[in-house]
Amino acid sequence: MSKLRRYRHLSVSVAALFLVLMFAWWYGPTPGGAGWARDNVTLHSLITEEGEIILQTALPVRKGDIYITADNRRFTAVAVKDGVAGMRFDGYEQLSQGKAEAPSDLAPWLLAGDLKLGDQDGVVEAMPEAGGARLVVLYHTHSDESYIQGDGFSNAPGLRSGGIYQVGDAMTASLQTDGWTVYHDLTNHSPHDAMAYTRSRRTVFQDLTLRPFALFDVHRDAGPGGPYAWSFQGQPTSKVLLVVGQQNPLMLVNMFLAERLKGVADYLYPGLVKGIFIAHGNYNQDLDPGALLLEFGTEQTPKTAAQNGAALFGHVISATLGPAK
User: Fold this and answer.
1) Which of 15, 29, 227, 319 has its CA 20 to 30 A from that of 191?
2) Which helix or strand (DSSP H or E) is residue 182 part of?
3) What CATH number is given for 108-321 in this structure?
4) What pLDDT, on a 0 to 100 scale, did the predictor assign at position 229?
5) Average of pLDDT values for 241-269?
6) What are the extents of the domains in the chain?
């Protein structure tokens, strides 16, 4: 075989391998999606060495996962068996405040000066203004998620959209009140199965063409509603859990944003953020440094409480990203 023929043969083989890998990446299951169907919910309890339950969640929990509590204690899962995760205390987390250290090539909009606390209205101007539209995208990988108190069911039957969409509406209205442009993507990714994240991944690709500042995948957790229960100005309000995927080259930048959001929330609305869960999977966060997953309550949480929590967190997002244009 001549050198030219060998070269052509090698080129064809490489091209074929590339197409196979692209097909598998696009249509295959994505980390963070597999095994996340909640038709048969497995509730995981994260328990400290002293026996304190610091989190109960339907999210998959594996050895090495990290949880930062509301009071900024950092724990690592050292053993997981039968729905119980033994957690090791690693110290207190220093939330990202002051000058950002995020790599400019990954997230130039995260490079900010020192946080400035508003003297009058408490607004934190954490991020500088940038040219162009100030856009936030909201979407729902698990489109059927609902609230028994408000919807009458925990998951919308068939391919209908669930009550989680109204939670997204509440966050949308809050951000718009603050002057932000919001695209609330209503694409339905049902059924609620292991391929939901593959379907929502295509949605994220489309939404990224809008060049948003941040993308939030809005969910609800599953299990008892008590751990998410909170009250703000006398109104039942759901806490929010921030979720960051570990299997993700942008994980450090996503984590920076999550910590910045929690720091601002702790200043504006102490108690609103339940914690930050750093889990196995990527939850499509490898596609953008401003991508996060948000959990507002469980199916046992009144939907109005979840909507109230989402509205407050919309103001947190606005305050964190800076003044809208």
Assistant:
1) 227
2) strand 181-184
3) 3.40.630.40
4) 98
5) 95
6) 44-92, 108-321
